[in-house]
Design goal:
heterodimer, A: mainly alpha, 7 helices, 0% strand, B: mainly alpha, DUF3100 family protein (chain B), membrane (chain B)
Chain lengths: 150, 273
């Protein structure tokens, strides 16, 4: 466990550096202003990864991480003002850019499989993603309007 | 995640240096938008980063080993993204609860996949492959479900793998491109698309909601919170949704469609006439 935790910390820290660079170049937030928020996010991720290993439930780490992050930022949670203020220095896109940079590098190895797909599979796959996206948006639109939220 | 040793991943300085440079360059370039009819396609740094990264794979800068080492960074990077989304949801918990009915019911929108894609797949000549292809967006739990039920080398298994591969390579980029376009070109509200962005994959959600934020920066906090809550819901309920609703419905519709085309064939014309 300890070995895993140390390795996770390293990988998260490397990714954190990439995100801080993106945050700096893209949103003009100086890295040292965003470091406290990044440390909070890394800590939450580490706890979630540890819970996944330690607890017997079949919930993935991202489940624990999402719930934990929501709880510590609820208005009545002690210190949540700091959590929210610090993490607000990190833009969501600054985290998305390095994910897609690494994803681009990584999917190269799937390229051979991808090329074998053929045009018909490609069309169906596009319809699959379009279908769920538009379907969900239509239902959300109807209910949100009906509730008067939008 | 245990496929590669994390120790070697951490020490792959070449990979990380390239990723840092990609992020710096793409973020420095910034966002562009192209007008397409009434809407806009947003070109965001994350899209350039993806394509530059993919392009580098075919150069000597990135080896097969570097590419494999990138996988744990995606998985752990997504955990940071989920943490960031969580701390954006917390302060808005009342708004999320108020939007609860919409959040829950839009999960049914996943059925849109079946109604749109299944007829297309059958029309294009796929047979039982189409069940694997169109019962869901084919993320890892769904691949598991299909392989478990039909076997990896079954037609259904081949079908689910085809959509899985497409999603892995282009899912995030595709949703990123269409979400900005649809939100600006259709009368639907960006917050409806924010909920739709939570398809159950961290990188796809980030790309889809990222484009929405690019188009509507004043709604950033709400977009992230709605997309994130919807994604969390999809992650926790998506597999059960497929087991009890998505897959049975796909199989039922498929057999109805097949029966109809058989009847047509029996009448004479044949399916292709």
């Amino acid at each position: 466990m300890l070995k895993s935790v140390i390795e996770w910390t390293w990988v998260l820290a490397i990714f954190g550096v990439a995100a801080l660079i993106g945050n700096w170049f893209g949103m003009d937030v100086l890295p040292w202003e965003a470091i406290p928020g990044m440390l909070v996010l890394i800590a939450v991720s580490l706890v979630g990864l540890m819970l996944e290993k330690a607890l017997p439930f079949s919930m993935p780490a991202v489940g624990y991480i999402g719930i934990l992050a929501i709880i510590i930022s609820l208005p009545w949670f002690p210190g949540s003002d700091y959590v929210v203020a610090w993490t607000s220095q990190i833009g969501i896109l600054a985290l998305a850019t390095p994910i897609l940079a690494y994803a681009g590098i990584s999917v190269g190895s799937n390229w051979a499989d991808f090329r074998k797909l053929g045009f018909r599979s490609f069309l169906v796959a596009i319809a699959v993603f379009l279908g769920t996206f538009i379907g969900s948006a239509l239902i959300a639109e109807v209910i949100l309007r009906w509730q008067g939220i939008i | 995640m245990e496929k590669v040793e994390l120790k070697t991943v951490i020490k792959d300085w070449r990979l990380h240096a390239i990723a840092f440079i990609l992020v710096a360059i793409t973020e420095a370039i910034g966002q562009f938008s192209i007008a397409v009819g009434p809407g806009v396609i947003l070109l965001l740094p994350m899209l350039y980063a993806f394509f530059l990264g993919l392009g580098l794979y075919f150069t000597p800068f990135i080896s097969e080993k570097n590419a494999k080492n990138a996988e744990p960074l995606i998985i752990l990077g997504v955990t940071l993204l989920i943490a960031k989304i969580g701390v954006t949801i917390g302060p808005q918990i009342e708004a999320i609860i108020a939007a609860g009915p919409a959040l829950l019911l839009q999960e049914l929108g996943n059925l849109g996949t079946i109604f749109l894609a299944l007829p297309l797949a059958v029309l294009l000549g796929f047979r039982r492959e189409s069940i694997g292809m169109t019962h869901s967006i084919a993320r890892e739990p769904n691949v598991g479900l299909i392989v478990n039920k039909f076997g990896f080398s079954s037609p259904e298994g081949r079908g689910v793998m085809a959509v899985y591969i497409f999603g892995t390579v282009f899912g995030a980029v595709f949703l990123g491109l269409i979400s900005g376009l649809l939100a600006t070109a259709t009368p639907l509200h960006p917050l409806s698309f924010a909920m739709a962005s939570g398809v159950g994959s961290g990188s796809m959600m980030a790309a889809a909601s990222g484009s929405l934020i690019g188009a509507y920066p004043e709604l950033e906090e709400q977009i992230v919170a709605f997309a994130g809550a919807s994604n969390l819901l999809s992650l926790s309920t998506g597999l059960y949704f497929s087991i009890f609703i998505g897959l049975p419905l796909t199989e039922k519709l498929y057999s109805i469609m097949m029966r109809r085309s058989e009847r047509k064939a029996a009448k004479g014309g044949g399916p292709n006439a």
